Amino acid sequence: MNAPMNPLDAHKATMNEVLSRQKAAHLRDGPPSVEKRVDWLNRSIDLLIGHQAEIAKAVNADFGSRSPEATALTDVAGSIGPLKFARENVAKWMRPQKRRTTPAILGLFGAKAAVQYQPKGVVGVISPWNFPVNLTFAPLAGIFAAGNRAMIKPSEYTPATSELLKAMFAEAFDEEEVAVFVGGPEVGQAFSGLAFDHLVFTGATSVARHVMRAAAENLVPVTLELGGKSPVILSRGADLATAAARIMNGKTLNAGQICLAPDYVLAPQEDVETFVAEAKAAVGRYFPTLKDNPDYTALVAQRHYDRVKGYVDDAKAKGARVVEINPGGEDLSQQEHRKIAPTLIIDPTDDMKVMQEEIFGPVLPVKSYRTIDEAVDYVNAHDRPLALYWFGTDEAEKDRVLARTTSGGVTVNDVIFHVAQEELPFGGVGPAGMGAYHGHDGFLEFSHRKAVFQQLKKDIAPMLGLRPPYGEAIRKYLAGQIKR
Ligand code: NAD
């Protein structure tokens, strides 16, 4: 008698079976028409509209506290936007792109060169907990526009939302089109070992190493959307009130649990105190209270609460000045949820954990600099970040900072917002990730760019003497080529 399969092997077998069926369906049906792709995009949009209330409820249950407006903004509207953008543009994106022939004269005689955009087939999507709906649906905009099917592994940290996603997709899609598998790291591990035609992973850099290693077994190409410590550089002369209002809005959105959250600030030393005062004022306007205020999001799990609290305690123990912004003066030590007040850490040192790890919480170190080159050198002495933010009016300095630093993307005079630009690629660099998606770049990322060259009807190579037996004609031709 065969021993019963352990649950993980059983899970793996099911995922493999679905992958085989999706691949077979892709071969059976051929590349989907534009109408089919628009239908997939529309079904996704309808799911989001139809389930918006349940989504808000599930996310709130998973986080302990997250306002329905925040979820509607980032996860519902924030997913519908990219899907609609893809729907509007997919027909244009799908068109083969003509290229010039080399040498150009071939084209004159009727040879053709073109790039055809072919669906890759089946794309795997591993999504994180911080925007559990957005980071599942936004990749689908490009995946569907490019004519692919999808298998999705959402996060175990948001179990209610992950179950809801599974039920939603099952309602509107056949498993041959979209299938969702819930589970933790073991399921993620098995999932990332599947022979997809492409795999998108959004999550932590440390986990991405495992994902890429697993994908390498099958040479599956990966898009890695990771995180890191995204700096904000305040230039001398920046409008500090506006900068602080925008930075603190970005830092408190989802309680800082955003891959693109401004991680730390580099400020001219004479501006630090003004920045601190303006940051306090901004937080006071947004959140008169924190504890039971649904607009202020909780940390997703005890592990993350302890981690972020640990950064503050460690910085305090190592001598940093800590400014807790608690506008209502509430006692946050006893609370139903896991809320941490927005906290500034003034002039941290590099031996503090808060300057070593991605914070992913509402804590903002403010480090002073004397010269802008000092700030640039600090950024360059650390891992390349997912984003860099620069606030100021000195255009020459802006150009210099942007040219001398490498980050996935940049927003000037605000934070995070480059992610909302559908015409811009979104992605990391170095430890912040590889590959990019959104808009047309998403379509390209999930398409195979097939090179197609169509030769002349007439076989002219023998006339030109380019075939053996070689003689004077080819030697003359080569002499013309092998020179500067
Ligand atoms: P995580 O890496 O812990 O988890 C992400 C997903 O990977 C989950 O679905 C998880 O189950 C799965 N997973 C865990 N271990 C795995 C393994 N060994 N093999 C395969 N899959 C595995 O990340 P998280 O805590 O959910 O999210 C926070 C991180 O994500 C932060 O670092 C943040 O910066 C990053 N992030 C990046 C972006 C982006 O677009 N660049 C967006 C959001 C979050």
TrEMBL record:
One GO term of the biological process aspect: aldehyde metabolic process
UniProt-annotated catalytic positions: 225, 259
Keywords (A to Z) from UniProt: NAD, Oxidoreductase
Entry-linked CDD domains: ALDH_CALDH_CalB (cd07133)
Source organism, top-level taxon: Bacteria
Keyword Disulfide bond listed: no
Domain Aldehyde dehydrogenase: 32-452
Record GO terms (molecular function): aldehyde dehydrogenase (NAD+) activity
Keyword set includes Transit peptide: no
GO cellular component terms, semicolon-separated: cytoplasm
Family designation: Belongs to the aldehyde dehydrogenase family.
This protein's name: Aldehyde dehydrogenase
UniProt lineage: Bacteria, Pseudomonadati, Pseudomonadota, Alphaproteobacteria, Caulobacterales
